[in-house]
Amino acid sequence: MTGSILINREQRPIELTDWEPVHAFRCHVAIEKDADDLFSVIVLNLSGAGSSGPNEEVALERTKESVLGLLEYYDENGIDIPWLMPKEYESQIPDNCKLKWILVDGD
User: Fold this and answer.
1) Which alpha helices (DSSP H) does 1-107 contain, by range?
2) pLDDT, tens digit, for every residue of 50-95?
3) pTM
4) Region of residue 96 (phi > 0: left; psi between -120 and 50: alpha; otherwise: beta)
């Protein structure tokens, strides 16, 4: 069985064997830069996850590690992941922040 994928505006056939299943988690984040030029990231749809760093890239990587740590804790303790729906967190989004969706690889 084959499908197709768009690469550089060209479609090429791919075999399903080209794909490996992954457990990725979609996280909605808010990114803020403070007065000291440090970046803070909070995961809006997973309470307790977030981090900071000297630039946005480092802060996002640390945030992904934070998410993985929480997911590991929930898994080890048999707790369902308490994902929040947008209506549950939209009133808590900080003013003047950058919003972004990131994928965290849970494998």
Assistant:
1) 56-76, 86-89
2) 999 999 999 999 999 999 999 999 999 999 999 999 999 999 999 9
3) 0.78
4) left
Residues whose CB is less than 8 angstroms from the CB of residue 1 and which lie 6 or more positions away in sequence, other chains included: 15, 16
User: Tokens standing for 44?
Assistant: 């809006």
For 8-41, how does the pLDDT look when each residue is reduced to its tens digit (9 = 90+)? 455 555 555 555 656 889 999 999 999 999 999 9
**Structural domains present in the chain:** 23-105 (3.30.160.250)
Tokens of 64: 């992904």
Q: How far apart are CA 55 and CA 91, in angstroms?
A: 26
C-alpha span between 73 and 18 (Å, rounded) = 32
Pick the closest to residue 2 from 18, 20, 13 (CA basis).
Answer: 13
